[in-house]
Amino acid sequence: MDSPLAGKRVAVLAENMYEDLELWYPLIRLREAGAVVSVVAPTEGTIYKSKHGLEVKSDLSAEVAKAREFDAVVIPGGFAPDYMRRSEAMVRFVKDANDEGKVVAAICHAGSMLVSAKVLKGKTVTCYKSIKDDVINAGGNYVDKAVVRDGDLITSRVPDDLPAFCAEIIAALSTSKTRPPAQTRTR
Length: 187
Description:
- By secondary structure, the chain is of the alpha/beta class.
- The protein has a single domain, classed as 3-Layer(aba) Sandwich (Rossmann fold).
- 30% of the residues lie in helices and 21% in strands.
- It is built from 6 helices and 11 strands.
- The strands form 3 sheets. The chain has a 7-stranded mixed beta sheet, with helices on both faces. The chain has a two-stranded antiparallel sheet with strand order 3-4.
- The longest helix is centred in the C-terminal third of the chain and has 14 residues.
- It is globular and about 35 Å long.
- The N and C termini lie far apart (41 Å).
């Protein structure tokens, strides 16, 4: 089986009350494509529950995770982004990933994390309609489409958009360079 994302490292963010499909669909799809996917959350080794009680265990805390060690960050929606944005480490992780030119993908209410990370100015994006005004007020150019890619920023609206959302993430990662892991230099 061909692995278009072999060697790619992806962080999927988690917090309580995430939208089930918006976390699990990308996580599974990206693993199927060959990426190494880690769940990053406020606390390492903690169980986070979805809106419907589905559990995911975090691999890393946002405090420990370094954006430079990943090729992409995926932010699911649901009520989780409202909890995520209360964590300075979670917001900083998203901002750092954006600033370092990583693929940053947000679906549904995850646009609120992009607002908090202050990465929307001048970007064309989409999101769930209830946060459209927040996205516009943060400087984003809102459009109502299943998936929007502006540079390394990928956004979608709702769970029905997940096939297009994941296809765009895979396409973006397939054309980006894999960053080698940080190495210690010796003299």
